C-alpha cells in the first residue's frame, strides 16, 4: 500500500490509467457516496478453475470510444460483496485487484465491473480507494494529470 505524507487534492472528475488492463486516459467520476470503485465493461462471466474463482471481463480498449476494440481480461476474484444501488437494488459485485495511476503514482485498487454504458463516465472511484489518500475539491477537474 502506498502511504502518502499528505493527501493530494483531486477534482470531481479525474483522468486515470489502469496499466495492468492496458487502459489509459480513462475518465473517472469521483463519488464519495459510493463505497466501491467500478469500471464499465460490456459483459463479464465468473468461472472456476483449479479451485479458484475468476472473472473474465470484456472491456472496450478505450471506454469513451464507442468504436474501440473490446479486449478480454481475466482476473482472480479477490472477494464478492453485495452492493445496493442508489435505487435500493442489491447485486453481487465481484472485486478484483489491479493498479491505478494518478499523479504519476501507482496505487492498488479494489475494482468491480458492471455495464455503465448509460452513465456519463466509464469509471467511478469510490471512498474505499479515495479514503486516506485524497481530498476532493468538487470545483476542480483533472488535477491528477496536470502535474509537473
Automatic annotation (TrEMBL):
**Which residue ranges does UniProt annotate as crossing the membrane?**
none
This chain's protein is named Retropepsin-like aspartic endopeptidase domain-containing protein
Write the signal peptide boundaries: none
Gene3D superfamilies xref list = Acid Proteases
Question: Which parts of the sequence belong to the Retropepsin-like aspartic endopeptidase domain?
Answer: 9-145
SUPFAM superfamilies the UniProt entry points to: Acid proteases
Amino acid at each position: 500500500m502506498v502511504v502518502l505524507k499528505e493527501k493530494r487534492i483531486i477534482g470531481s472528475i479525474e483522468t486515470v490509467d489502469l496499466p495492468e488492463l492496458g487502459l489509459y486516459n480513462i475518465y473517472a467520476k469521483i463519488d464519495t457516496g459510493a463505497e466501491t470503485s467500478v469500471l464499465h465493461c460490456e459483459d463479464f462471466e465468473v468461472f472456476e478453475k483449479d479451485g479458484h474463482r475468476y472473472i473474465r471481463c470484456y472491456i472496450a480498449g478505450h471506454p469513451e470510444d464507442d468504436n474501440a476494440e473490446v479486449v478480454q481480461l481475466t482476473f482472480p476474484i479477490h472477494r464478492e460483496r453485495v452492493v445496493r444501488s442508489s435505487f435500493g437494488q442489491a447485486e453481487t459485485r465481484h472485486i478484483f485487484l489491479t493498479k491505478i495511476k494518478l499523479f504519476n503514482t501507482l496505487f492498488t485498487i479494489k475494482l468491480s465491473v458492471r455495464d455503465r454504458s448509460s452513465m456519463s463516465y466509464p469509471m467511478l472511484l469510490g471512498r474505499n480507494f479515495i479514503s486516506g489518500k485524497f481530498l476532493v475539491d468538487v470545483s476542480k477537474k483533472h488535477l491528477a494529470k496536470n502535474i509537473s
